[in-house]
Amino acid sequence: MMYLSGTSMAAPAVAGAAALLLQANPKLTPNMVKLVLAHTAQPLAGFNQLEQGAGELNIEGAVRLAKLIRTDLSAATPLGAPLLNGAAPEPKSTVGGTTFDWSQAVGFGYAYARGADLITKYQKVYGLGILYGDGILLGDGILLGDSAVNPMTVLVNGDDTTYMK
């Protein structure tokens, strides 16, 4: 047995998780994959969102949630339309006999958002062609990272809220 940590160990685990989500729901956009992984993550005790990110991967909850996301979403889907087919699942998972709550938060650089609307109502940032993070899209799929502050609008608790990094 070996103990390994860091991004070089996390990257293949997250890539595998993303592949499982896309197998469960091939219509997920990259932003939706990030949403599902962050929303269902298991928070780490003793750390806040800025120290740990969303937490540890929770494949059971992520796949369960991915299966509920509508497959008919498009650029024409209005902001706040239902995101899920049916009701939101209970934000808990039981793995190996241990039950834990989901983080239910989505990170936006140096800030994060919480709330049921993030997972029950469609946000334009979840669609194709919208960046969910920092950077400038130059075209033809080229993303140039920078240190500029980029706002995004997210519907939280029924209000349009602009979050800034």
Report the radius of gyration as a whole number of Å.
16 Å
Whole-number total of structural domains: 1
Write out the strand line-up for the largest beta sheet, numbering strands in chain order: 1-2
User: Ends: how far apart?
Assistant: 40 Å
Overall form: globular
Specify the biggest β-sheet: 2 strands, antiparallel
In N-to-C order, the SSE pattern is HHHHEEEEHEEEE
> What share of the residues lie within helices?
25-40%
Helix and strand composition category: alpha+beta
What's the β-strand tally?
A: 8
Q: How big a fraction of the residues is strand? A: 15-25%
List low-confidence stretches: 146-165
Question: Count the helices. How many?
Answer: 5
**Quick check: average pLDDT?**
80
